[in-house]
Amino acid sequence: MIRPATPDDVPEIVSMIRELAEYEKAAHEVRVTEEGLRATLFGDGPAAFAHIAEHDGEVAGFTLWFLTFSTWRGVHGIYMEDLYVRPQHRGGGYGRALMAELAGICAERGYQRLEWAVLDWNEPSIGFYDKLGGLRQDEWLTYRLTDEPLRRLAPREG
Asked: Where do the N-acetyltransferase domain residues begin and end (predicted)?
């Protein structure tokens, strides 16, 4: 049911990233390409990892994640960038199974954190994460630099 992604899964993962972005009302922000994602997941020293949920040979969902490091705990953790289950497969346990896979990786490797973010209006996902025992980190604010603000901050040559 759950397996590590392979290079052949990249087109499906990109498709699901676009589906997720549409759901999150941010399709206009998607810039991922199959080539770029393939290099990220399967190039020399991969920067991220993905797992696939399958139902009768059909891709039902995926999770994409990468390693973090906690200076306070002194060990790695996992940051789950995306968890997506296609609408026709929701309620079938695939989201939980994908989360359980990441929790298992944490346990096997001695990682002490599994973290993620969820949009504050996404009540179905919030309810799902609450049922799993996820703890909201309300005291932390998430910041992001992209596009022009990121370019302005970057040091200039010369």
From this structure: 1-155
